[in-house]
Amino acid sequence: MKVSILTFEGFNELDSFIALGILNRLRSKGLQVHITGPSPKITSMNGVTIETTQALEFASESDAVLFGSGIYTREITKDLSILNRIKLNSNRQLIGAQCSGTLLMAKLGLINNLPACTDLTTKPWAIEAGVKIIDAPFYADGNLSTAGGCMSSQYLAAWIIAKLFNCEEAENAIYYVAPVGQKEEYVEMIMKVVKKFL
Amino acid sequence: MKVSILTFEGFNELDSFIALGILNRLRSKGLQVHITGPSPKITSMNGVTIETTQALEFASESDAVLFGSGIYTREITKDLSILNRIKLNSNRQLIGAQCSGTLLMAKLGLINNLPACTDLTTKPWAIEAGVKIIDAPFYADGNLSTAGGCMSSQYLAAWIIAKLFNCEEAENAIYYVAPVGQKEEYVEMIMKVVKKFL
Lengths: 198, 198
Prior knowledge:
The structure is a homodimer.
Chain A (H helix, E strand, L loop, with lengths): L1 E5 L6 H11 L8 E6 L3 E3 L5 E3 L2 E2 L8 E4 L5 H4 L3 H4 L10 E5 L2 H7 L7 E2 L6 H6 L3 E2 L4 E4 L2 E4 L5 H12 L2 H11 L5 H13 L3
Parallel strand pairs in A: 1-2, 1-6, 2-5, 6-7, 7-11, 8-9
Antiparallel strand pairs in A: 3-4, 10-11
Helix pairs in contact in A: 1-6, 6-7, 6-8, 7-8
């Protein structure tokens, strides 16, 4: 099984790498997680340059796709040279977005009338784009989900694992990354939010 | 003010990038955060290659230094070509470690008899190295701190901001990255752990 974390120039490190780190707990069970981007190298909002591990087109053949967020997302929603490379199908793929990634999901017609989450900065732009924004960390319906606030990437990752595998695997992954001495309560905190949508 | 996040081959993305993302909330207030490594490029434990933004020697002139963790840390504790490049002084620098980074702090004589935190995998190796490991997510004493469990990097980042700036700035940074709709409780959860050591 393959996951694409769509990551663009000016990306937010928390959004892309928290999902990557948690999802990779399932690597030994056959989950391949890729930083999928429009070019071989991209630089984060805080100046860290990384090499993408797959091109944008890889998203089409992924079982799950996450739209990361970043400081240039509004520009990307107008850039057809990027948008035209992203071909997704919510009937056969799990699709989620983090913060400003919600703008991209909306632009690609993947949100429609669903309630959606985003960060406080993106909220007015998402509303302007016709998205029904709710004041919540995470929302999912069927194969679609959105999250708001960088650390909500934990919910997106847990949701993908629960959907591709099962709840127990999601709990195991969160347990592993949770703070020592707080693991049970941390798992409960994350799964309480996600389980409502499973 | 400068922060070095010491990041080595096989690094854990969560440990280095959660700290980087949270600490960079203070960039507009003069905080420069660097991924500081032994070579210009390093590859994470899950195969993501990044460019370091400073060489290892930069740690000596940083106000705060974090030892990230990774899958090759035990080998690095025996590699003098790396260890000899890290010159720190806990009288004038804040020094913290995440998970297996605790092994490096111990090797460099920066833990002594302090209780310390690490992850469950590293725990037996840390005990073998003579470190007094406690079952806690975070511990700090003066300018030194350690954290255990990937997501405890939130505590390390909040502690550094509180020490370099103040508690309010740490709360603001956590508030920004916290999940939407849960921000107050999230800030309280993180600061409750950190404030005991301020």
